[in-house]
Structure to design on (429 residues):
DNA sequence: TGAAAGTCAATAGA
DNA sequence: TCTATTGACTTTCA
């Protein structure tokens, strides 16, 4: 998908004028966007700027002067691989430092409010055909969309992570310390997993409010901390561990993540499985340590992250698998189970059920294959009809129903419990 | 302790 | 052969 020349340089299918920064004649639009932000937005994004700062970059952050050279493009391969895998698009390059991302399956849209949104329906939004990244010699990273192909050519959607004044007029810059590949990787993950949610349409302010902080650990891990967010969340701020510097582990621990877009995640997993012809049984047993049927249900009826309890671990295993580069994802599927846990950076999940305890009827003979009871159509229709009236029949009523339909009261109880849960599922989705 | 959550695993269906 | 459905079991939670 990426276009790398064999000598390590980068093919440049795009004309040189495309590598130039886009013009910003539509600055009034952007100013309006800035006005839409909370009053103290810029203070939360970064400390208020002083004039001296732009004259003396060291005042921005002590970290910014550590290394003035650009991040080698070779390093960016792994960083953007996750982005490519996630959005299933293509990155091409122009000049030495500019990258373009485009996807045939997905579009990036911008709503009139200035919100950055992810959509698969091009009719809903003014669609941006490309998402562009650029990394200049000062290690500033820009991410911007260009809809010049179908809209006025000054209509850009930008945000920039920089330590120098932005060429785009947002009224101020989103300032972060010098980017390392770890930082960029982490930023990508946050953008993908937290902010590109359909329920919680992200906006640029969300992204801008992430600060990069150095953890006081000997490992070269950094953490993205969200000090506050205009998106209302019931959970504490999000925090994601980035890929280690050797690229060996892109995993996130359960206590490091406060939100995963499970719907989006499941869609990605399903596409990935289809593309690489991974059977549900294989993925379920190898990656999740769960059964095929469980995976099928999870993929088709993803539960909202905030409603999950112990089940978060299963989604997190999907997430951590997807966060790996493609070659590693495929390799994990071939690994022994213990190595899979290690590769995902997660301990073996507690078995959902101790097989030896399985089934009352099997206790006497564990080798006996259980036959599944199936309600007759009359039994089912009656149970469903009652469910429409009363989702939670009393014990007495359940006994009456059981007697009437010649069923075990336990079967009736199970029916209503399953029905409530599965109806709730569909409602939430 | 009852209900909900998480899941298994048989089997229906494509 | 693979996925979707679903009755029932185990674990967790309030």
């Amino acid at each position: 998908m990426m276009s790398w020349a064999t000598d390590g340089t980068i093919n440049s299918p795009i004309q040189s004028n495309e590598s130039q920064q886009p013009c910003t004649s539509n600055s009034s639009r952007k100013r309006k966007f800035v006005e839409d932000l909370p009053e103290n937005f810029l203070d939360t994004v970064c400390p208020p700027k002083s004039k001296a700062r732009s004259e003396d970059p060291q005042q921005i952050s002590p970290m910014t002067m550590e290394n003035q050279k650009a991040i080698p493009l070779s390093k960016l391969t792994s960083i953007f691989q996750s982005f490519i895998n996630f959005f299933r698009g293509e990155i091409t390059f122009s000049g030495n430092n500019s990258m373009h991302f485009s996807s045939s399956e997905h579009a990036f849209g911008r709503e009139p409010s200035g919100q950055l949104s992810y959509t698969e329906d091009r009719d809903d939004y003014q669609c941006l055909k490309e998402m562009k990244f650029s990394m200049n010699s000062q290690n500033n990273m820009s991410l911007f969309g260009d809809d010049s192909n179908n809209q006025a050519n000054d209509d850009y959607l930008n945000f920039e992570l920089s330590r120098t004044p932005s060429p785009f007029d947002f009224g101020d810059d989103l300032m972060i310390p010098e980017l390392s590949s770890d930082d960029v990787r982490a930023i990508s993950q946050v953008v993908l997993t937290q902010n590109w949610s359909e329920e919680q349409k992200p906006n640029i302010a969300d992204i801008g409010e992430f600060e990069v902080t150095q953890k006081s650990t000997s490992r070269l891990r950094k953490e993205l901390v969200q000090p506050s967010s205009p998106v209302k969340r019931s959970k504490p701020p999000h925090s994601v561990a980035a890929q280690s510097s050797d690229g060996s582990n892109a995993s996130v621990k359960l206590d490091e993540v406060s939100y995963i877009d499970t719907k989006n995640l499941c869609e990605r997993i399903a596409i990935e499985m289809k593309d690489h012809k991974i059977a549900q049984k294989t993925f379920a047993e190898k990656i999740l340590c769960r059964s095929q049927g469980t995976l099928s249900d999870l993929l088709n009826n993803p539960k909202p992250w905030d409603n999950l309890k112990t089940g978060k671990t299963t989604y997190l295993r999907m997430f951590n698998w997807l966060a790996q580069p493609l070659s590693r994802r495929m390799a994990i599927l071939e690994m022994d189970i213990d190595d899979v846990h290690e590769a995902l950076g997660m301990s073996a999940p507690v078995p959902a059920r101790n097989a030896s305890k399985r089934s009352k009827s099997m206790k006497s003979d564990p080798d006996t294959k259980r036959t599944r009871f199936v309600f007759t159509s009359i039994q089912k229709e009656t149970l469903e009809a009652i469910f429409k009236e009363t989702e939670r029949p009393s014990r007495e009523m359940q006994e009456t129903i059981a007697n009437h339909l010649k069923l075990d009261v336990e079967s009736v109880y199970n029916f209503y419990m399953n029905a409530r849960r599965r109806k709730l599922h569909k409602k939430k989705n």
Notes: The longest helix of chain A spans residues 409-428. Residues 1-248 of chain A have pLDDT under 50 and may be disordered. Chain A has 15 helices and twelve strands.
